[in-house]
Write a structure and sequence with these properties.
The protein is mainly alpha-helical. The longest helix is centred in the N-terminal third of the chain and has 19 residues, at 10-28. The protein has helices spanning 2-7, 10-28, 37-54, 60-78, 99-107, 111-123, 127-131, 161-173, and strands at residues 138-139, 144-148, 154-158.
């Protein structure tokens, strides 16, 4: 967990900590390395399927796969590579807004939120990239944005006319 805390996001750390303490350690905690991992994993899958089904939770196979991937990462870190067959899982297709619905939604927003969501939608920026964006990194003259992304990678994004208008409107609406 300390490695995860240092090298992964706080959300990932919290999620893996919960998986370890709530499910993995209680089931695998007293298992020796020379035990049969296939039998233990099969038992774990059966046990967790029963627990999740009893709570009428959707996505049970996905949750179990994530827990086992967490266990596999822990075993790999400890020098005992663990392989297992994942349970079948198919992600449901999301409901997607039409272009007109997105346009109407964004146009109904205040300048700050219009600029925020236009950067997400129109410039393909990530949430963290928009939150950390400063005016020094926005060039209205060249219609570009310098973005510091994942892994501190820097990239240049050209501004779509809608992004340009939304950012300019937000900038002009600010009094501070």
């Amino acid at each position: 967990l300390e490695h995860v805390k240092l090298h992964q996001s706080p959300v990932t750390y919290k999620s893996k900590k919960k998986m370890l303490h709530a499910h993995i350690i209680p089931h695998f905690g007293n298992v020796f390395a020379d035990s049969s991992p296939d039998v233990m994993i099969r038992q774990y899958k059966t046990k967790r399927k029963g627990e999740i089904a009893s709570k009428v939770a959707k996505g049970g196979n996905r949750a179990i796969n994530l827990e086992l991937l967490c266990l596999a990462a822990l075993c790999k870190w400890a020098g005992y590579p663990l392989k297992f067959e994942q349970l079948p899982y198919r992600a449901t297709m999301p409901n997607i807004l039409s272009n007109d619905e997105v346009k109407a939604l964004i146009e109904a927003m205040e300048p700050f939120y219009r600029a925020f969501f236009t950067c997400l939608y129109g410039a393909g920026m990530r949430k963290k990239e928009v939150f950390t964006l400063t005016w020094e990194r926005v060039s209205f003259e060249s219609r570009s944005i310098i973005v510091t992304g994942k892994g501190d990678g820097i990239r240049l994004i050209s501004m779509h006319p809608g992004v340009y208008e939304a950012l300019l409107s937000h900038r002009l609406s600010r009094t501070d």
